[in-house]
Amino acid sequence: MTPDELKALVRTIPDFPKPGILFRDVTTLIGHGAGFAAAAGHMADRARAAGAEAIAGIEARGFIFGAAVAARLGLPFVPVRKPGKLPVPVLAMDYALEYGTDTLEVDPGAVEDGQNVVLIDDLIATGGTALAAVQLLRSAGGVVTQGLFVIDLPDLGGAERLREAGLAVDALMGFGGH
């Protein structure tokens, strides 16, 4: 399936989680077997071209796509977790949200020094979470130069923010608006 055909599988829900937002719901893409396989295939091709030695995914939907890509390529998967989910001492990174802060964590032993890690998530909006994940993976010793996303919301500027931080950004599809 082409990226345009995959885009047609993404459900748009108006006014969620608040009025004025058009929520792009990838669960309808994930729930379409051929579509999910094609999305993972497209992302795997791009990760391979970027020289990936490991795939990192951001909790939660980045786990779905990232693990599928890692399995397809036979590469290790590095979960970038929400706080308190890992049973070992972690590296942690705080980052700003629209109203407050949040934290991401990674097992420092999950990334080898100098390992080329490709970051995967379902959606890039403002880029705050992805930027924190990149910084965290780099502090663990990874070389992170490529971010792959199923959806880009270019009007929110996240992809540009990541490019300014030295990350090549690629998405299977884009949607205007919020």
Automatic annotation (TrEMBL):
<dbReference type="GO" id="GO:0003999">
    <property type="term" value="F:adenine phosphoribosyltransferase activity"/>
</dbReference>
<comment type="similarity">
    <text>Belongs to the purine/pyrimidine phosphoribosyltransferase family.</text>
</comment>
<dbReference type="InterPro" id="IPR005764">
    <property type="entry name" value="Ade_phspho_trans"/>
</dbReference>
<dbReference type="Pfam" id="PF00156">
    <property type="entry name" value="Pribosyltran"/>
</dbReference>
<comment type="function">
    <text>Catalyzes a salvage reaction resulting in the formation of AMP, that is energically less costly than de novo synthesis.</text>
</comment>
<comment type="pathway">
    <text>Purine metabolism; AMP biosynthesis via salvage pathway; AMP from adenine: step 1/1.</text>
</comment>
<dbReference type="InterPro" id="IPR000836">
    <property type="entry name" value="PRTase_dom"/>
</dbReference>
<feature type="domain" description="Phosphoribosyltransferase">
    <location>
        <begin position="51"/>
        <end position="141"/>
    </location>
</feature>
<comment type="subunit">
    <text>Homodimer.</text>
</comment>
<keyword id="KW-0808">Transferase</keyword>
<protein>
    <recommendedName>
        <fullName>Adenine phosphoribosyltransferase</fullName>
        <ecNumber>2.4.2.7</ecNumber>
    </recommendedName>
</protein>
<keyword id="KW-0328">Glycosyltransferase</keyword>
<keyword id="KW-0660">Purine salvage</keyword>
<dbReference type="InterPro" id="IPR050054">
    <property type="entry name" value="UPRTase/APRTase"/>
</dbReference>
<dbReference type="InterPro" id="IPR029057">
    <property type="entry name" value="PRTase-like"/>
</dbReference>
<keyword id="KW-0963">Cytoplasm</keyword>
